[in-house]
Amino acid sequence: MDRLDHLEHLDKHLVDELAQVARETVRDELREQTRKQRRTAVLYAASGAVALYAGAALALTLGLLLALGLPDWAAALITAVVLGAVAYALRSAARPSASRPTAAPRPDDTGPETPHHRER
User: Fold this and answer.
1) What is the pLDDT along the chain (120 residues), one digit of tens a residue?
2) pLDDT for res 68
3) 107 Cβ contact partners less than 8 Å away, ≥ 6 residues apart
4) By the 8 A CB rule, do 100 and 108 touch?
5) In Å, how far are 26, 29, 81, 83 from 32, measured between CA atoms?
6) What number of other Cβ atoms are within 10 A of residue 17's Cβ?
7) Distance of alpha carbon 40 from the chain centroid
8) How many Cβ atoms sit within 10 Å of the Cβ of residue 71?
9) What pLDDT is recorded for position 57?
10) Following CA atoms 50, 55, 59, 64 in sequence, which dihedral angle do they give, to the nearest 10 degrees?
11) Domain-by-domain residue ranges, the chain?
12) Are 78 and 66 in contact (CB under 8 A)?
């Protein structure tokens, strides 16, 4: 009986050690994946900030070019309208609409709304 208790203790100890190793391995793997994703996120954020400054410089250039032949207020107004139109077009492109097709139906969909359904 004493020998069985000793083996049970060893089994429990072995299971605890295996669980510890598994936790450490998973933790290290997640840490590595997080590090890579963090770097990617920082690069995307930096590119977005630079694109914002580039867009501001482009808008300023457009305004200054228009100001050469128009009053300053008119040049600023035209620049604002152009930027508003671009923003509206981008928003419309991002929004799903009924005229644009959505995701294609999967072949395993056989409901009445899919073309794969046959009336018998």
Assistant:
1) 566 666 677 778 888 888 898 999 999 999 988 888 888 888 889 998 999 999 999 999 999 999 999 999 999 999 999 999 988 888 888 887 656 555 555 555 555 555 555 454
2) 93
3) 116
4) no
5) 10, 5, 47, 41
6) 10
7) 11
8) 10
9) 94
10) 40
11) 2-94
12) yes
Alpha carbon 87 to chain centroid distance? 20
Q: Hey, what are 110's tokens?
A: 């056989």
**From the CB of residue 88, how many other CB atoms can be counted at a distance below 10 Å?**
10
Query: Cα separations (Å) of 91 from 81, 85, 96?
Result: 15, 10, 10
Structure tokens at 82: 């152009």
The amino acid present at 21, given as its one-letter code, is V
The residue type of 110 is T
